[in-house]
Design goal:
There is one protein chain. The chain is an alpha+beta fold. It has 15 helices and 45 strands. Helix 3 (about 460-475) runs parallel beside helix 5 (about 525-535).
């Protein structure tokens, strides 16, 4: 049993959380179910409820109130079963603070003068309190203006980092609920928090960045509620009784890195005896916060998910240590070191090397330097708290003595989503490409979907996730995280319907501010909620974001006018087409207004689909008609009767074919022309952000599967596998971020960790792997592998909301194919193996052989 899209039910922010469960193994399906809610020892059962629903089932009782804790379990009746299953293990859901009136805490921070335009030394805040009787329950509800880490009696609370994350702070500030019962002791206690600038007031953004985007205060907002054995409660909330002092972190920034002076650190600072007799702790400054803007999380936090030791450690002639972790990642170094007081260690980071040195030019103004000053009090294990770096290589200067590999590790951080998708095949280079996609998703799903994790940018670009969402939603359960981010997209949507280029919005003069509506980027408002609905079966998510998508399509309708051609305004077109010059990524081969009009038709059609699912029948009719009008206008302006495009580019054909904008008579010649363009260029890639996710499907669907495989397996630049030949372990922003001679692309945008061009993995999962969802949440599946490209076997697995779906196929010596399929209980599938008629499959494990199937059909 799970609740909403959360890993657990503690601190949930909705009073009627939806319930999801998987069926007992071998039950094949669900004919009925019964739920039991245990509220304070008073169980209530729903009785037998007929129906197959088991994903995001409505809450069956009265809504939760703040702090209420309910145990939930389920039992099910399989088809034709006389008796129900055993009850599931109880799962507990506990409401957070659901009403603004529940909050007593106010923001507290340092009360000393600061230069708001400079890097400021972060503060720590603390308060002592006493516990005089046995505690039965203690909860900490906590957030901050900036970033925080809390300790109680010297013990860290939670394990997330960069909390509370980045939302549109004026409207939504996320708080988290922690069970801190075990942190407390009878007698004297202390709660304290480290503070950091983060996105709230640190320097952020490109072209020099902007400080204090949301405010100048750095403040903790915390409410500790302690319930005793007699049922009484004490609340210790941030208020004027707290104190603040400068901490040992001298400076900290997400771009700049962190500087820590261990000589200034008292490890007992957050214990009752930690600051006795010191005069540096002063009264805090209190602030204000609209408690109505405090919201509970919709997804998991950012955590360390892996720790990697260096593959090599090299001492340079200058005495520095160069570390290669063998993998481009996002995280921080953790080091264990001992040396004399005042010894200064400098840690620098980069994704690639050039001429044996860290290549830092792609970082632009994100210096990514951490500094540690030793205290001389013995061995110290340290990593920075409030920064994050994108790197494969690190350089350490000033290490006392000899650095050994076990003294340092790279800790990998990202939103701690559950992994749900896996793929591998007989081609090692294709496997490495897929791993690169996974690593780029991990590095850029850091509380929101960013474009890159290393330079002075790291923004939630709407176009990037729009094209990557199908891949992302196969690989990880990202529904809660993206639902939260889409909520912010809706908050940042302009009154006229314009969707910003990136969300949250920050200053981006001169190119990105003021905001203009742009195709492919703005279409995230329609297409990404639809993708998430298809993959996770969440109709509520689709409903919440429907007004945002409708406002976007209505805006584009007005911009296109009666002609239904969107041929005006600022457009990025097929961004980063490899033919575009390094300093003008929008200057690709495809008419940018062709792209805009194609997306207009595509989004109108998907808005109509969403309307139909939501029961908005009038809207479904209206937007279907609008989509057809835009498609007709597209054909008149951008195609010839013979099926050729006015922009004779692969992206133009890929858009027209994948978005189904052509007549049936035009599709075949358009597909043939696309295949010819690809083969004439020896199957080197010629698409950017818009065309890349579509081109393999466009080729496959028009009978050119062989050309799609040639495109996938090309190793010459530009291609998907060219970076693999250059040792890439993530997806690059540009096809040639590194040139064949080892030099870096001269463009100012040269990231080596950028997931957008990895959107081809969705085609790999469906076409090579053979698993496609044909009903929301994968309740119906199509198993249709399309072997090619010399690949002789593939194994694909996806954890659907209903359970595991997998397909493993292998070519036989006779030229046939054998396949082993696993269908979750409660689901159905159709298997379409090469040369065989479709076969309907129910839940369970199935072994199929094309030779046997063909013989039966004959």
């Amino acid at each position: 049993m799970t609740f909403e899209h959360l890993p657990d039910g503690l601190g949930i922010g909705v009073p009627a959380p939806r319930l999801t469960w998987t069926l007992p193994p071998g039950s094949r399906g669900q004919e009925a179910y019964e739920l039991e809610l245990d509220r304070a020892g008073r169980p209530h059962r729903t009785g037998r409820l007929t129906g197959p629903d088991q994903v995001l089932v409505p809450w069956p009782g009265t809504p939760l109130v703040s702090r209420e804790r309910v145990g939930v379990r389920v039992r099910v009746w399989a088809p034709e079963a006389a008796e129900p299953s055993a009850w599931s293990e109880p799962a507990v859901v506990e409401a957070g603070l659901l009403e603004p009136a529940d909050w007593q805490a106010v923001p507290v921070g340092a009360d000393w003068d600061e230069d708001p335009q400079a890097m400021r030394r972060p503060a720590r805040v603390r308060r002592d309190f006493r516990i005089e009787r046995p505690v039965t329950r203690a909860r900490l509800y906590v957030t901050a203006h900036g970033l925080y880490e809390v300790e109680i009696n010297g013990r860290r609370v939670g394990d997330e980092i960069l909390a509370p994350g980045w939302t549109v702070y004026p409207h939504r500030l996320r708080y988290r609920t922690h069970d801190v019962t075990a942190h407390l002791t009878t007698g004297a206690n202390t709660i304290g928090a480290w503070l950091g600038d983060g996105w709230y007031r640190g320097k952020y953004g490109f072209d020099g960045g902007t400080r204090n985007i949301y405010g100048t205060d750095q403040s903790l907002i915390a409410q500790l509620e302690v319930t005793y054995d007699d049922g009484t409660t004490t609340v210790i909330a941030t208020d004027g009784t707290w104190t603040a002092a400068p901490g040992p972190i001298l400076t900290s920034g997400l771009y700049e890195g962190e500087s820590f002076d261990a000589r200034l650190h008292d490890p007992d600072w957050a214990t009752p005896s930690g600051v006795v007799g010191t005069g540096e702790w002063l009264a805090v400054r209190t602030g204000t916060r609209d408690a109505g803007t405090l919201v509970a999380p919709m997804g998991p936090p950012v955590r360390c998910t892996e720790e990697i030791t260096p593959a090599t450690v090299t001492r340079t002639a200058a005495g520095r240590y160069l570390l290669d972790f063998g993998q481009n990642l996002v995280g921080r170094l953790r080091i264990t070191v001992d040396g004399p007081a005042g010894t200064t260690l400098t840690l620098r980071h980069a994704e690639v090397l050039q001429d044996g040195e860290l290549a830092t030019r792609p970082l632009r103004e994100a210096t990514s330097v951490d500094t540690l000053i030793l205290s001389g009090r013995g061995p110290l294990t340290w990593e920075p708290r409030f920064t994050l770096h994108g790197f494969r290589y690190a350089e350490i200067t000033g290490w006392p003595g000899k650095l050994k590999a076990d003294m340092v590790s790279a800790r990998v951080y990202h939103t701690d989503m559950r992994r749900t998708g896996w793929f591998e095949c007989s081609d090692p280079m294709v496997n490495r490409l897929h791993e690169n996609v996974v690593w780029s998703m991990r590095g850029n799903f850091v509380d929101l979907p960013t474009d890159c994790p290393q330079r002075d940018e790291r923004l939630g670009w709407t176009g990037d996730i729009q094209v990557f969402a199908p891949t992302a939603s196969f690989l990880y359960d990202c529904a809660g995280m993206l639902d939260s981010w889409l909520t912010d997209v809706g908050l940042e949507q302009l009154p006229d319907g314009t969707i910003p280029w990136y969300v949250p919005v920050i200053p981006g003069e001169p190119m990105w501010t003021p905001i203009h509506p742009g195709a492919a980027w703005g279409d995230v408002a329609v297409l990404t909620p639809w993708t998430l609905y298809q993959r996770f079966g969440d109709l509520g998510l689709l409903r919440r974001h429907y007004p945002m998508g409708k406002a976007w399509v209505d805006l584009v309708e007005r911009l296109a006018g009666p002609t239904r051609l969107w041929d005006t305004g600022v457009q990025l077109g097929d961004w980063l087409d490899p033919a575009a010059p390094p300093d003008d990524p929008a200057a690709g081969r495809t008419d940018r207004y062709l792209v805009a009009t194609a997306y207009f038709a595509h989004s109108a059609r998907h808005l109509a689909l969403a309307a139909a699912e939501l029961g908005e029948e009038a809207d479904a009719i209206r937007y279907n008609a609008l989509a057809e009008e835009a498609a007709v206008a597209f054909r008149r302006r951008y195609t010839t009767p013979s099926g050729h495009m006015t922009s004779d580019s692969p992206t133009a054909y890929a858009l027209a074919l994948a978005f189904d904008l052509l007549t049936s008579q035009q599709r075949r010649p358009a597909g043939d022309r696309l295949a010819q363009l690809v083969t004439d260029d020896d199957a080197r890639i010629a698409t950017g952000f818009v065309g890349t996710p579509l081109i393999c499907d466009a080729l496959t669907d028009t009978g050119h599967l062989d050309v799609a495989y040639r495109l996938l397996t090309q190793t010459e630049c530009p291609s998907w596998l060219y970076p693999v030949t250059m040792g890439a372990t993530t997806i690059w922003e540009r096809w040639d971020s590194m040139r064949p001679d080892g030099t870096l692309n001269p463009g100012g945008m040269t990231s080596f960790n950028h997931y957008a061009l990895g959107a081809v993995a969705d085609w790999m999962h469906r076409t090579i792997g053979g698993i496609t969802a044909t009903a929301p949440g994968y309740r119906d599946l199509l198993l249709r592998p399309r072997p090619g490209g010399g690949i002789t076997w593939a194994r694909t697995r996806h954890e659907t909301p209903y359970g595991t779906a997998s397909l493993a196929w292998e070519q036989t010596a006779s030229g046939g194919l054998t396949a082993r399929a696993e269908i979750p209980d409660g689901c159905r599938a159709t298997a379409e193996l090469p040369g065989c008629p479709p076969v309907r499959l129910g839940p369970g494990t199935h072994v199929l052989d094309t030779t046997e199937l063909a013989a039966k059909a004959a």
